[in-house]
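Quick note —
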Amino acid sequence: MNSTLKKHIFSHITLTDEEWYQFSSAFEHIALRKKEKLITVGDTVAQEYFVIKGCLKAYTKDAQENQHIVQFAIEDWWISDFRAFFNEQPAELTIECVENTEVLALKKTDLEALYHEIPKLERFFRIKLTNAFVSMQHRILSSLEKNSTERYTEFLKTYATLEQRIPNYLIANYLGIKPESLSRIRKMLVTPGSNL
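Predicted structure written out below.
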């Protein structure tokens, strides 16, 4: 369990054995079943989560109760409703397991204490936050500037193993297209020259 997190952390910073023990001890292991919710709209969000196994989706709903997926999180990814987490506001996203999932939960209060005790952790989380911001901005621009085929191709690069793990309708939802459109795109990519 901790080896996945350790590899993830040490890819950006180095901790002493004592620092690693102190940091890793702050996490709580949580196991969830498929379709179980980690966060629901309106919740107080006091934790962020590192995925060690499984897949989650973060989504919002419109006035007609249609889901709009804004993020998937798979192994080695962090997830939370970060607006609620950082601003201490009620959650606007629901985060639900797409597969049986295991996460490591880190409380905001523990994280703030760790920043003082192990300052280099602040650098690690700044890197992760910057990467997340850049990724989200890229996704917004993609949705505005790129066609559905280009967005699907980008999805395959971002979530290389996910296509075989989750239903097609979830991928289509994430891309903002209908499932039948996704089927046509896949067919076209397999048979170049065919029309959408």
